Amino acid sequence: QVQLVESGGGLVQPGGSLRLSCAASGSIFSRNAVHWYRQAPGKQREWVATITSSSATTYTASVKGRFTISGDNAKNTVYLQMNSVKPEDTAVYYCKIPATPGWGQGTQVTVSS
Question: What are phi and psi for residue 101, nearest 5 degrees?
Answer without folding.
Answer: -80, 150
